[in-house]
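The records we work with from here on pair a chain with its fold. These numbers are not coordinates but entries in a learned vocabulary of local backbone shapes. To see the layout at work, look at the sequence and tokens printed below:
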Amino acid sequence: AVSSGDAQKLYNLVCEEFGIKPRSYTTFWKHLKTLEGLGMIESRTANASVGRGRTQHITMTNTQPALLENRIEKEFL
């Protein structure tokens, strides 16, 4: 599993590589919820190890990469 904070850092890095302005954390979080609703990822909420907040731990569902690629293209492109 990867934390939502780490996933956003990776997202920001990819945006930088492609010269795209990254969206806010709230928008990023809404996209995560959309992917979860589609059954493409799973997440669970946990207390943050540092500070008082909470974090989401994200995992991929048991889907073959080729099937996931086709589904992403169908749903988002």
